[in-house]
């Protein structure tokens, strides 16, 4: 369904609830809801997603300038690298097309936690 690969947990339950409530069976998952509760058929613009991430960070008492939609995606790859998930598997989830770009997050994680980092102690 719609290129998603998450299989279990609270995020899946929340997503399924949203899809059912919004009656979305194709197209973009995240869409604009106007002040009257009408759901657009078009997906949210990237700038809107970024604004929502920042707003939610602020609501959680965090510094919104430290968060972005891009940060969620790159942070996922960094965490996948930290947990030893193979790059191709993580790229399927993150939907990165460029191995060069995706591997840069893996390289950063490896520099911090890899065997070479443990040599100097």
UniProtKB/TrEMBL annotation:
Keywords: DNA recombination. GO terms for biological process: DNA integration; DNA recombination. Gene3D superfamilies: Intergrase catalytic core. The keyword Hydrolase does not apply. Residues 1-119 form the Tyr recombinase domain. Residues 90-121 are annotated as: Disordered. InterPro entries: DNA_brk_join_enz (IPR011010), Integrase-like_cat_sf (IPR013762), Integrase_catalytic (IPR002104). GO terms for molecular function: DNA binding. Residues 99-111 have a biased composition (Polar residues). The keyword Kinase does not apply. This is Integrase.
């Amino acid at each position: 369904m719609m290129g998603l690969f998450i299989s279990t947990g609270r995020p899946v339950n929340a997503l399924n609830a949203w899809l059912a409530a919004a009656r979305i069976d194709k197209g973009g998952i995240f869409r604009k809801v106007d002040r009257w509760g009408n759901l657009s058929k078009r997906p949210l613009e990237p700038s809107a997603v970024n604004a929502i991430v920042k707003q939610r960070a602020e609501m959680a008492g965090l510094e919104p300038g430290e968060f972005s939609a891009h940060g969620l995606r790159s942070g996922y790859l960094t965490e996948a690298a930290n947990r030893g998930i193979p790059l191709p598997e993580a790229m399927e989830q993150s939907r990165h097309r460029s191995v060069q770009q995706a591997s840069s997050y893996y390289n950063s994680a490896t520099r911090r936690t890899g065997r070479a980092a443990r040599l100097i102690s």
